[in-house]
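User:
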Amino acid sequence: MNIIALRLLNQQLICPQFRDPAEVVSHMGAIQAQEYRMMRWAVEMRTKKPSAKAFKEAFDCGRIVRLHLMRGTWQLVAAEDYWMMVDLCAPKAIAVTKGWMSSNKISIPDEELMRVRDILAQTAVDKGSVTKEELVRALAERDIRMDDHRLSYHIRMAEFSGTLCSGDLQPLKATYALTANKIKPAAKMDRDEALMRFTRTYFRSRQPATLEDFVWWSGLNVSDCRRGIALLGDSIHVEHYRGRDFYLTDDCRTRGFRTGKFLLIPPYDEYLIGYKSRDIVLPPEHRHRAHNNSGIFQPIVARDGVICGNWSPFRDDCQVTFFGGEYDAGEVQEAWQRYRRYGQK
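Assistant: Predicted structure:
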């Protein structure tokens, strides 16, 4: 079993199957969106013809939305999956957030929570798409002042409740919109059906992966993750490899891998963050070059799926530093030109 080749194919990092950014997000279930500029490349590098314009159109019309969802961090999700994902993931996300609030000695009474949520929602209605600075001003007009940390918790809670999601795409600033104006309401899905769909999406897009990988990525408890796998029945199977049990779905992509290919991967990309154990693609001695223990991830270069360097996304020329062997920087030019063309469409 060539785990690296299978992951590249099923993550759409080589031989991508989709032209539409929203289809990519739907295929992945959720895409980490911690770095506001680089989240766009994380989606577009998985499309047949990357286009910044296509991403913006899908984002602005609400076919792709950004919100805090799993592990208390930012993700992109497709509109068609939004309500299912919120119902499934919000309870754990709320518990995680309240734990952080407690550790920071922040307490938000229910009365304050509801009052501020109403103001945030009304401001989003009035403006259509609102920045954090505009939310601060709206609160100040009602004699409510708080530091940025406290306001961030209010915004997260509004996201978890399905009240707010991302607004229109701006170059550098996140915006917020009323979810009801972005995403159509949907009938509540049976929890087992949602769990089965969620589980299948994870393994279909990140296989081969372990139970521990799924638990880490989803933020759900182990029993829920085990149940999700069980609900898939015969459509998923286990393969033993180097002392670990990897799950693969019956529609796993297996054809299309070619050698000698470089990828310029953004920070916080699902290629690493989608798994608890990253040693298969990232040699342990180079782990600190890709991410630190505080959860800060760097832009990385992969050759044939193995992490071998870092790159600089916001430079005018290709700046690559290799740490995993001797490579010709000129061989990265094809990947660099693809990235540069993306930003011009």
